[in-house]
């Protein structure tokens, strides 16, 4: 006598909980994602085998082009940027208006000498993004404005860290004055930004 097969019932899955989890994860990633800052200039750093990551917070960056032009990226904190601008203004006997301070709080990088900073800050925001000064920030034995930016940043917050990003073709004499200037203010710990060397095995 043949066995009677039990009737199969379809399985019903409630996907409501899965949809909730998906949207929670999506919201989390949207809220916590940090986009890479645009580069001030086209710089190809040398490669290395180091796998250490730079700290995300409290990081100043000095960029050096192949021609030895320096740019300075302050820590991305609007209120502390304004404090930095006030300190640099006091050092160079300059005063900045509230609109100029608001513009500086949004600046990604300082790419001009102090004498041109006010006119730079009064440019429209779109022009500021595309403006490139040929001389950058002075850094030589007679004019160490770049070191002043670093030193006054540390006066705002002594816990700031510094990374230096140089092009693979930048000659050492171009950055020697930077290293000597950092030594003069007793700031001896910093990172050199490199690109990850590919594994050829």
Q: Which secondary structure elements does this structure contain, and how are they paired or packed?
A:
Elements: H1 16-32, E1 47-48, E2 59-64, E3 70-73, H2 78-91, H3 98-106, H4 114-121, H5 125-130, H6 145-156, E4 161-166, H7 172-184, E5 191-192, E6 195-196
Helix pairs in contact: 2-3, 2-6
Could you please describe the fold and organization of this structure?
The strands form two sheets. The protein has a four-stranded mixed β-sheet with strand order 3-2-4-5, covered by helices on one side. The chain is an alpha/beta fold and 201 residues long. It starts with 15 loop residues before the first helix and ends in a 5-residue tail after the last strand. It has seven helices and six strands.
Main sheet: strands, sense, barrel: 4 strands, mixed
Radius of gyration: 25 Å
SS element count, helices:
7
pLDDT < 50 stretches? none
**Shape type:** elongated
How helix-rich are the residues, as a percent range?
25-40%
Q: Beta-sheet strand percentage?
A: 5-15%
Count the strands?
6
**Arrangement of strands in the largest sheet:** 3-2-4-5
């Amino acid at each position: 006598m043949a066995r009677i097969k039990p009737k199969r019932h379809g399985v019903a899955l409630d996907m409501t909980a899965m949809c909730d989890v998906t949207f929670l994860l999506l919201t989390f990633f949207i809220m916590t994602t940090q986009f890479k800052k645009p580069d001030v200039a086209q710089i190809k750093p040398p490669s290395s085998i180091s796998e250490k990551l730079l700290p995300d917070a409290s990081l100043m960056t000095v960029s050096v082009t192949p021609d030895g032009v320096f740019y300075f990226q302050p820590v991305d904190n609007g209120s502390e940027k304004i404090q930095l601008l006030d300190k640099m203004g006091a050092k160079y006997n300059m005063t900045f208006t509230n609109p100029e301070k608001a513009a500086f709080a949004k600046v990604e990088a300082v790419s001009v000498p102090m004498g041109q900073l006010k006119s730079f800050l009064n440019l429209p925001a779109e022009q500021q993004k595309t403006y490139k000064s040929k001389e950058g920030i002075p850094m030589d034995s007679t004019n160490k404005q770049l070191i002043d930016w670093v030193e006054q940043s540390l006066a705002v917050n002594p816990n700031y860290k510094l990374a230096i990003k140089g092009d693979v073709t930048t000659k050492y004499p171009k950055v020697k004055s930077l290293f000597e200037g950092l030594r003069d203010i007793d700031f001896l710990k910093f990172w050199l930004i490199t690109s990850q060397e590919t594994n050829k095995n």
